[in-house]
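Supplementary notes for students who missed Thursday's class. We covered one full example, reproduced here. Read the sequence, then the structure, then the short commentary at the end.
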Amino acid sequence: MTLAAPSRILLALAAAIVGIGAMSVGLVGRYGGERAGDAAPAARSRTDLARHLERAPGDGRGWVLLARMDFGADRFADAATAYERALATGDKVARDPAIWCEYADALGMAQGGSLAGRPRELVMRALALQPTHPRALEMAGGAAFDAGEYASAIRYWGDLLSQLPPGSRERALLEAAIRRADERAALR
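Structure (token representation):
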């Protein structure tokens, strides 16, 4: 993820702040580009992709596309399974911190919108690959906040804050989240 799309970070941050976990929607490329009202073409595309993956189970990018399609259709458990399959295809996919974040997001949504447990472990894996990854920092901060680990949330979000342009809406929202975590930490 690049900083050209910081609104995704803040959408996820806002969800974490209200305690329902990080949420995002990945772009699906040609398989998922249909409009919401075009359910039949989307179903055909998904079916075609699933058939392809039966013949080529080592196609990591194909599994990622399927996962993103399932996530976009609110089939979070299916999306998590597809991300797991994608990551098992090889190092190329497994070295991408964004995929680990997407997997964590899908698994978190499958468990009711929480990044606690395994989803948080996946976010930490993304940070191990790239300690400055914006989405991983945002999600790690959200998971820490939800767990009541406010100092950790402040640290992760502080690292992210340095990547956001001064005066931006995204930066202002993140600064507000950091203040809220600081206030909660002071109450302890």
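Commentary. The chain has two domains: 1-23+113-188, 25-95. Residues 85 and 143 are 24 Å apart (CA to CA). If anything here is unclear, bring it to office hours.
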